[in-house]
Amino acid sequence: DVTETEEKEAQAKQEEQIIKEQELSNLLHEKRYLKALGLAISLDRPHTALMVVKAILRETDGRKHLEENIARLRKDQKEAVLTFLVTWNTNSRNCHEAQAVIETLLKHEAPDSLLQYSGIKPAVESLLPYT
């Protein structure tokens, strides 16, 4: 009978998730946006990543800080943000943040490196009607 083992594993995963969510909340409160954005991406939380982007943009010189934070993300994290912002861009309440991230990616990434992103073609096709 493996029921007890499975229950312990599920409980451990749930506890780990709660700890990460608390850490994310603390990072946002401490205005450590790069780590918060990275954690939101690793948790696969598009809405939380959007909240981090909105918090960055509310800061003084928000665009500059957004550029700095996006530029410091790893390639896989940038790919995840790209997929997130496709969804953000379809909602008029979130389109400005999505466009700010798109602008940052287009400014700071060479076209050849953007073409290497997984999912770039469907992302561009989805962004065009709303941009």
UniProtKB/TrEMBL annotation:
Keywords: Nucleus, Repeat, WD repeat. It holds the Pfam family Utp13. GO terms for molecular function: U3 snoRNA binding. One of its GO terms (cellular component) is small-subunit processome. The keyword Nucleus applies. It comes from the Eukaryota. It is found in: Nucleus, Nucleolus. PANTHER family: TRANSDUCIN BETA-LIKE 3, TRANSDUCIN BETA-LIKE PROTEIN 3. This is TBL3 protein. It comes from Atlantisia rogersi (Inaccessible Island rail). The gene is Tbl3.
